[in-house]
Amino acid sequence: FPRACVSSKNLMEKECCPLWSRDGSPCGQLSGRGSCQDILLSNAPLGPQFPFTGVDDRESWPSVFYNRTCQCSGNFMGFDCGTCRFGFWGPNCTERRLLVRRNIFDLTVPEKNKFLAYLTLAKHTTSPDYVIPTGTYGQMNNGSTPMFSDINIYDLFVWMHYYVSRDTLLGGSEIWSDIDFAHEAPGFLPWHRLFLLLWE
Q1: Which among 146, 151, 154, 178 is least surrounded, fewest beta carbons within 10 Å?
Q2: Does 102 reside within a domain?
Q3: Nearest to residue 83, comparing CAs of 38, 51, 129, 125?
Q4: Contact, 27 vs 81, CB < 8 A?
Q5: Tens-place pLDDT, residues 102-142
Q6: What pLDDT digit, counting tens, does each position of 34-87 carry?
């Protein structure tokens, strides 16, 4: 969850349209980066593999938490439209950028050491932009009592993978463990592709 969007005000108003730091407007609207809009949800029926509705915070994401978010334009992306879309670079996100994912077995010893040093740094650096929930939206009293915690950058990725694949919470102590949304559904490949792009 974007750190800028976890106050009780944000959660109760169900809006995550933070100010972009460079121009001070929501979603960088004054710079043409994006605008705050209602989220669009699919109206396709749920498949029979998920027999519940309205019980899981991840259903129709992110509508349980937010109904309005930044919708970025052009080559901009991010929760505040403050970063470049994958494959682009530069102050206005207009420069093409080609990244080559190298085989770790082809790295030299200094390159491997540098890679491991960055992993260690990620494990000891609190994420400046994101926090994780420590309770469900219902446990947060519909947003009036936010329940979020800091997390280091490395564990943020561990947590994202956990959050998308954890069991469905049905209320109280009941869970439903018959589906894993990250690994037992058509979203397996595209979800992990995005996960790797974010990691890189």
Answers
A1: 178
A2: yes
A3: 129
A4: yes
A5: 999 999 999 999 999 999 999 999 999 999 999 999 999 99
A6: 999 999 998 888 777 778 888 889 888 999 999 999 999 999 999 999 999 999
| Residues 21, 76: Cα–Cα separation, whole Å | 14
Q: Which structural domain, as residue segments, surrounds residue 101?
A: 8-199
Is the whole-model pTM more than 0.85?
A: yes
Give Cα separations from 85 to 49, 136, 162, 191, 194 (angstroms): 33, 30, 25, 16, 12
Identify whether 1 is part of a domain: no
88: which strand partners?
96
Q: How many residues does the chain have?
A: 200
Per the omega criterion (within 30 degrees of 0), is the bond before 62 cis?
A: yes
Q: Give 3-state DSSP helix, strand, coil % of the chain, rounded to 5.
A: 30, 20, 55
Q: Rounded to an integer, what distance in angstroms lies between the CA atom of residue 164 and that of residue 188?
A: 11
